[in-house]
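User: Need the bound-state model for magnesium ion:
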Amino acid sequence: MMAETIYALSSGRGRAGIAVIRLSGPAAWASAGAMIGRPPLDRRAVRCAVTDPESGEVLDDGLCLGFRGPQSFTGEDVVEFHVHGGLAVIDGVIGALGRQTGLRMAEPGEFTRRAFENGRMDLTGAEAIGDLIDAETKAQRRQALRQGGGALARLCDDWRERLVTALAHWEAALDFSDEELPKDLERATQSAVSALREEMAIHFVDGGAGERLRDGLRLAIIGPPNAGKSSLLNALAARDVAIVADTAGTTRDVLEVHLDLCGYPVIAADTAGLRDSDEAIECEGMRRARQRAGEADLRLVVFEATAWPAAWPAFSELLTGNCLIAVNKVDLRATSLGGGPGGVPVYGVSVKTGAGMGELLGAIGATAATSLQSGAMPVITRARHREALSACADALAAFEARTDRLVHPEIAGEDLRVAVRALARITGRVDVEDLLDVIFRDFCIGK
Ligand SMILES: Nc1nc2c(ncn2[C@@H]2O[C@H](COP(=O)(O)OP(=O)(O)O)[C@@H](O)[C@H]2O)c(=O)[nH]1
Ligand SMILES: [Mg+2]
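Assistant: Bound-state model below.
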């Protein structure tokens, strides 16, 4: 099937120095050529007048850059126009492209989809491009680049190859007599499968760090009214996000800001102060506050220095698990604070004077670092990867159980096939039987 040629504005919309409009498909070269009065050059930029071929009107003075397929992002002929990033210029070029026959506007993600379909990248690579575009912090950028470089894909390819070999050996062991085969082929296959399953299991114990890094660490700021929770959020965000007032019950909804703390993404949520109240809206706010605290990866429980430590026992249910205590308004207190309940770290701060804020930020950043990047860099960055890997590991466990007890060893091969297919879902490479052919051909059985 002949692919359609697609085009789209690939840079952000809005006034900018430069805008990039990209075309991909069999008509890309000719269409771009019609707009610049000469064919584009492969991997060379040409300075040109970009014109509307219908009216002959010059739309801009820009650059045209060609990438002949298959050595291009999509694997097809790709042409880029680099023009001035003004709305009228962009609309002019997009409009002129739209009036050419055989061209249509690209769907969201279609360039990357074509790159995948044309074998330029696997699914994890395509996902990594999306993650890189969405990356807001250094750690997210690193993770996306590593995934784009094939961190998980390489592992999956290696596992898949070993699994297919195990499958070939297992089926050979059933099909051929002992004299024709290397000794202990069955046992060797079983231990190869066990080793593989154990290797995979190592990647599960990352505490979901890779997935969480994509979304950010969820931080809930919680505590009694008037302690300075909203002031703290504003200080963390370095702007006035939340209303600050000395009236208790000012904050009602949960307010969220995305922060970059030491290179890690943190979603900080300011919540309604917790106290006894009959007021319906405030009660709803407190319900949401508790819910947010329950879902958070880290709770920052804020108290007033003048009420410390008398205030904490009423909040003891919030002071377990992953939490930090900020005792705010130390500018109003002369005596030292002492430790927190159950060894929860206590940070004396004053949002007003800035005292202690550096230490508190450092502590939140350190928690983010440990929780988002546990030990070795995680390779599982999406729930999709985790589900497929666990389906694969389950199938391997089923193989081990079946072959240990020798219950239907003839269908144990099917367990391995299920495992291979689960792995293939991660990368989108699904050619199990092809690989089997190769292995059987090389397999030394003398037939
Ligand atoms: N003295 C002093 N007052 C503060 C400090 N932080 C916040 N406040 C004041 O405390 C009051 C309550 O602050 P707010 O952030 O609205 O508290 P929330 O109810 O916990 O969100 C406001 O009047 C703030 O100006 C601080 O470090 N020192
Ligand atoms: Mg508040």
